[in-house]
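Researcher: Please translate sequence to structure tokens.
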Amino acid sequence: MEAFNFSKQPGLVLNKTDYYTAALPLVSIITPYYNAAKYFEQTYNCVMNQTFTQYEWIIVNDGSTDEASLDLLERFASVDARITVLHKENGGISSAQNFGIREATTAYILPLDTDDLIEPWYIETLYEGLQRYPDCAWAYTNTVCFQDEERLSDRPFDAKQQKIVNSLNKTALIRKQALFDAGLYYEGEKHFTEDWHMWLKLLSLSCRPLKVNRFGFWYRRDFSSGVRAIIEANPDIMKRSRTLIAQAAKTVDTSVTAREIGESTQREEPLRKLARIATHNPLGATAVGIAQSIRQRRKNGT
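Model: Translation complete:
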């Protein structure tokens, strides 16, 4: 087997400049943003390079204080009408994610941190997967860990093992209704493994995942920054995080299994069809107008 090349990170360059803004958004990307200038440009490039164009990107500024980070955010947001920036007082990742989810206009949520990366086919493949398998509540891929730790994670899904170790990546495509059914992300702690906690809550509701057996998500391991670094450096935070995970794990339905699929074989035509429906069907045109109106009101603060 050919060795994996960790240097071929997605988003190193911006490949697309022909931004498509007319069609009805079908996916909501939610990004909590706090003093995130260090890596955000590469994450931004990843989103702009997506083959799937029918998304809205809600970036929640969680009380940033760094002027360079604020300037970068506003500059990128001004480029594309699909991007909406919301502002709130600092409350942590869960608070910011829930704030964005409540503002989302679509039925699908993709949480994406400001330092992580996704392959250009990522959203398209996960969206098609959930369309094909309505019994699944979320879809995810295998993970590439990079930077300070380089490794590949492609463990088979195991609900029982998930109670002990988190083998799922955070940036999955999740049905919004499932998130609301689970009570959204827990906001009682500012720093903890909120993604793992959510997977346990969804498994407690017997929600089924869809695992796409491709390496599509790049998880940045920066030992000097980020929520994980904060948790690992503080014994009290670590203890509280473990307690929350242990409590959530008690009610997990260990009989849940994942659907597993390989590379999508029906990638291009279904999305073109959806775009035609949204832009040429009278009802689709009405929906587009509603979505655009909502985005404009957000930008105007009304």
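Researcher: Any highlights?
Model: The longest helix spans residues 282-300.
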